[in-house]
Design a protein that fits this description.
The structure holds two protein chains of two kinds. By secondary structure, chain A is an alpha/beta fold. Chain A is about 20% helix and about 30% strand. By secondary structure, chain B is an alpha+beta fold. Chain B is built from two helices and four strands. In chain B, a hairpin with a 3-residue loop joins β2 (about 25) and β3 (about 30-35). Chain B is globular and about 30 Å long.
Chain lengths: ~450, ~70
């Protein structure tokens, strides 16, 4: 069996990997390194239960599903380098952690507001860590005049939803024509837009925030690209995430802004695309070839993906070549906003057509299927999550699009229409799924990275 | 006690909301909101809710769970 194992990243993927290693009989030296000083906690409640005030920000610690006695927790210290030749992780405090096998699960951080002076104003927030959520909750509880959310992705929309639940006035600014359109396309995004407006969100689409104005060091207002001015005292920056890969710059691993390249068994590639034996990747930073999508490289910022990859990485760390397992499962995602349960399977943003297949969009209880090249590639439900398993099977079997629902209760009169995904350059937030493979979408993603650097 | 619900599995059957209403609530028709750190006085109810979940989406720490 293998020698010491180091896990870099103490989030969901890091914790579940540690548990899976123990559950599979690995009782050797195990070190978990985390930059935050907290033991592994769950992030999805931060933008929901924590912001509403029901749950405190330090009360989302994840349950331990296996006995982790004897694990060496290095919390509150960053990893700054991985030495592939010497097989050791260097920590910021100068110590190093030797390994025989290593798992990288360093996840994301919130993408900051690019103007540093504006970002430093009192009243500017992001929502990614427990500390972020704690600070924003305090401010929301103090009856702000108006909150401005920059970015209509899932996190931004969830924050807007919480504001309305708390009876706080909120303006959401999104460059695309509708919120959620980066993840779900413009057709479904328009339904989300109507949800927001019905809930009293002042939704401004097709515009960007040009300037955040301060008064005596505090946020006082924003100026939008259409020339309008909005008086606000709180700004929530929801531009998506940045993958934590910079610490691997000199590691010779295939690490960059799009993630860390790895094979379907979570084994990291080096910079020459040669697979390594010792280093594995899981969670939001992993960029892997997905067999259901023509082995195109994808990176998924999904809760369930972190869980599945952690288990696969743990299994493969301990397995001989013949026993290794691939990551082949269909991506799943959920978001709760405006009292609607939004769930998806597959990768909607790879599609070019969408059709409402079940239920009613007017009632906001429906399923829609996404297609590409005559195949079902994804589906989304609003308050109809029980339908999704059916679509997951269609995706797994490359079923024809539009799907034949047979005897299932089917929406009538709906024909497939263009799914209307805006190019990344027309979105305020970075999408939570990034297609980075050999398709033309790679060019779009790369162009966006370039633009952001130039901004 | 620590609780996590795999909301990708959750299908909104709401059995947990009946059995442990202080810890599990529906937002709208089927979106589950829950307390990931309910007080230990609710342990019995939470464990019953976890056992009753038709899709086994509720995960709790064993009573003898490791300390921080």
């Amino acid at each position: 069996m293998t020698g010491p194992i180091a896990i870099v990243g103490a989030g969901l993927a890091g914790l579940r990997a540690a548990e899976a290693l123990r559950a599979r009989g690995y009782h050797g030296e195990l070190t978990v390194i985390g930059e935050e000083r907290y033991e592994p906690y769950d992030r999805p409640p931060l933008s929901k239960q924590v912001l509403t005030g029901w749950v405190q920000s330090d009360h989302t610690t994840l349950p331990r599903l296996a006995d982790l006695d004897g694990v060496n927790w290095e919390l509150g210290v960053r990893a700054v380098h991985l030495d592939l030749a010497a097989k050791r992780i260097l920590l910021a405090d100068g110590r190093d952690v030797p390994f025989d096998r290593c798992l990288i699960a360093t996840g994301l951080r919130a993408r900051p507001w690019p103007n540093e002076a504006e970002a430093a104003l009192d009243g500017m927030f992001v929502v990614h860590t427990a500390d972020d959520a704690h600070e924003l909750r305090r401010r929301l509880a103090a009856a702000p005049r108006r909150v401005l959310v920059i970015g209509g992705g899932f996190t931004g929309s969830e924050v807007a939803s919480v504001c309305r639940m708390l009876d706080v006035e909120v303006t959401l600014v999104e460059l695309a024509p509708a919120p959620l359109s980066g993840a779900l396309g413009g057709v479904v995004g328009e339904i989300a837009a109507q949800m927001q407006r019905d809930a009293g969100v002042d939704l401004r689409t097709g515009v960007r925030v040009e300037t955040i104005e301060g008064d005596d060091g505090r946020v006082s207002g924003v100026r939008l690209s259409d020339g309008t001015h909005v008086d606000v005292d709180v700004v929530v920056v929801a531009l998506g995430g940045v993958r934590n890969t910079e610490w691997l710059r000199d590691s010779r691993l295939a690490a960059g802004p799009q993630g860390i390249g790895c094979d379907a068994g979570c084994r990291a590639f080096d910079a020459n695309a040669i697979v390594t034996d010792a280093v594995f990747v899981a969670g939001d930073v992993a960029r892997f070839p997905h067999p259901l999508y023509g082995y195109q490289m994808v990176a998924l910022e999904h809760w369930r993906n972190a869980l599945v990859q952690a288990e696969i990485a743990a299994h493969n760390m301990l397995s001989d070549e013949a026993d290794r397992r691939p990551h082949v499962s269909v991506p799943w995602f959920w978001s709760i906003q405006f009292e609607v349960n939004i769930k998806s399977v597959g990768i909607p943003s790879i599609a070019d057509e969408v059709v409402v297949t079940q239920g009613s969009t007017d009632e906001r209880r429906f399923a829609a299927a996404y297609g590409r090249n005559g195949q079902v590639v994804a589906a989304v439900t609003f308050n109809a999550g029980r339908y999704l398993e059916f679509y997951a099977r269609l995706i797994e079997t490359a079923a024809p699009f539009p799907p034949d629902l047979g005897r299932v209760e089917q929406a009538t009169g709906d024909e497939p229409v263009p799914a209307d995904f805006p190019p990344p350059s027309a979105l305020t937030n970075r999408p939570t799924v990034v297609l980075t493979g050999h398709s033309p979408t790679e060019m779009r993603v790369q162009r966006k990275e370039t633009e952001e650097r130039g901004a | 006690m620590r609780v996590v619900v795999d909301l990708t599995l959750c299908q909104g059957y709401a059995q947990c909301c009946y059995l442990a209403p202080e810890a599990f609530r529906l937002s709208g028709e089927e979106a589950l909101m829950y307390d990931p750190d309910p007080d230990d006085g609710q342990r019995e109810r939470i464990l019953r809710a976890a056992a009753a979940c038709p899709v086994r989406a509720i995960f709790t720490e064993p009573a003898t769970g490791a300390e921080a």
